[in-house]
């Protein structure tokens, strides 16, 4: 009898975490490495949020809380959805978890049975398919390539839906591409979903506040009210509020689904960290003016990285609408040989050679379900980004 579960054979460790760990190991060995793999802001949590956490500690808010969130935080989340998205929810329709990932995982664990299919536009966040597999479902990747600016078309969505489809996972702006769907583009997708009442929608809105130029964010249940009763709208404080390590995610949806998610959480982690919940409460109810400044900072970095990568030989880098990632196409590099003799057969060998020869850590596109590409997180300083992109340009120039 094998000791480890057969379930482990269906999933793999996170490639993004693996890249970050590899970069850190090389740095520890004294190598000059620039890591562009981590998906987190490089600036600190707002001071008022940190102060709220300290007050919570001093006030003794260190005990167990309700399994899926303190009442005050649920109320603040309801207000956020009403204020920013025009969506009305009650506290019993809100779930708070230990990060956005747990929220998604709880929902999948609470709803999927063997044979259930989950449609996932590719490129996708690396965890979506593996969470579906862990929950016993079948991920169904549907390619949305560079020719559609990495956005799924209504025709492709419609063609992918079968009687076994239970969920459609939607992420805008996207990790890894930064692609954001306009209201019209999203309405085309929701029109398809309205024809298939057995399909539920899981909308991952984690990058809602990181949108650029004149782009206006919208979410499925907001665009199509007819989907309200079968949509789980997921969000969190990790990205916009620079609180990745605090581990607070949340979601709103039908009360029966939220209750089922709470049952899963009650037998796994129980409540999220009490101090983090009070910090998130301050984040959602305190001053929001810093969001615009952060957005402007990321937009400037986006423009810098897109311009520099498009100067690299063999690379085409579209300009995304949001998040803090770009997803360059390296078709022009495939089949060539690096300056130190590595044949670039795919995006994984490209990323490995780039790390070994130039000390730049990126995540290869196959990890996200679409090749040949790689992901750059530009959540770091202008100086670091200029140096990293210069090294990428030099690496590409050396390919023959």
TrEMBL record:
Under InterPro entries, the record lists:
Aminotransferase_I/II_large, AspAT/PAT-like, NHTrfase_class1_PyrdxlP-BS, PyrdxlP-dep_Trfase, PyrdxlP-dep_Trfase_major, PyrdxlP-dep_Trfase_small
Which Pfam families does the protein's record reference? Aminotran_1_2 (PF00155)
Name recorded for this polypeptide:
Aminotransferase
Q: Tell me which cofactor or cofactors this protein depends on.
A: pyridoxal 5'-phosphate
GO annotation (BP), single: amino acid metabolic process
E.C. numbers: 2.6.1.-
User: Into which EC class is this enzyme placed?
Assistant: transferase
Name all Aminotransferase class I/classII large domain ranges.
32-392
Sorted keywords for this record are:
Aminotransferase, Pyridoxal phosphate, Transferase
SUPFAM superfamilies recorded: PLP-dependent transferases
According to its UniProt record, which reaction does this protein catalyse?
Answer: L-aspartate + 2-oxoglutarate = oxaloacetate + L-glutamate
Name any one GO molecular function.
Answer: L-aspartate:2-oxoglutarate aminotransferase activity
Family affiliation: Belongs to the class-I pyridoxal-phosphate-dependent aminotransferase family.
């Amino acid at each position: 009898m094998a000791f480890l579960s057969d379930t482990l054979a269906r999933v793999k460790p996170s490639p993004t975490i693996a890249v970050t760990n590899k970069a850190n190991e090389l740095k520890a060995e004294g190598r000059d490495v620039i890591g562009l793999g981590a998906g987190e802001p490089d600036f600190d949590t707002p001071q008022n949020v940190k102060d709220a956490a300290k007050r919570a500690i001093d006030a003794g808010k260190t005990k167990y809380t309700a399994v899926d969130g303190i009442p005050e935080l649920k109320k603040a989340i309801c207000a956020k959805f009403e204020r920013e998205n025009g969506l009305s929810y009650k506290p019993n329709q809100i779930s708070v978890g230990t990060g956005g990932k747990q929220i998604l995982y709880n929902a999948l664990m609470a709803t999927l049975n063997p044979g259930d299919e989950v449609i996932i536009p590719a490129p996708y966040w690396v965890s979506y398919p593996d969470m579906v597999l862990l929950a016993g479902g079948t991920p169904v990747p549907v390619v949305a390539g560079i020719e559609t600016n990495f956005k799924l078309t209504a025709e492709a969505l419609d063609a992918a839906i079968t009687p076994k489809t239970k969920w459609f996972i939607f992420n805008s702006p996207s990790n890894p591409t930064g692609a954001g769907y306009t209201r019209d583009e999203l309405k085309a997708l929701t029109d398809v979903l309205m024809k298939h009442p057995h399909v539920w929608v899981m909308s991952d809105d984690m990058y809602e506040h990181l949108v650029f130029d004149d782009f206006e964010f919208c979410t499925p249940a907001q665009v199509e009210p007819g989907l309200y009763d079968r949509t789980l709208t997921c969000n969190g404080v990790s990205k916009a509020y620079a609180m990745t390590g605090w581990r607070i995610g949340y979601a709103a949806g039908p009360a029966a689904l939220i209750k089922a998610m709470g049952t899963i959480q009650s037998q796994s982690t129980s409540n999220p960290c009490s101090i983090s919940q009070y910090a998130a409460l301050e984040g959602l109810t305190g001053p929001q003016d810093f969001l615009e400044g952060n957005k402007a900072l990321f937009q400037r970095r986006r423009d810098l990285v897109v311009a520099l990568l498009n100067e690299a030989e063999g690379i085409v880098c579209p300009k995304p609408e949001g998040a803090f990632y770009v997803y360059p196409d390296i078709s022009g590099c495939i089949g060539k040989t690096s300056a130190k003799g590595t044949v670039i057969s795919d995006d994984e060998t490209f990323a490995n050679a780039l790390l070994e020869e130039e000390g730049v850590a990126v995540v290869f596109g196959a990890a996200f379900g679409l090749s040949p590409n790689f992901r750059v997180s530009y959540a770091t300083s202008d100086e670091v980004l200029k140096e990293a992109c210069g090294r990428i340009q030099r690496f590409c120039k050396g390919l023959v």
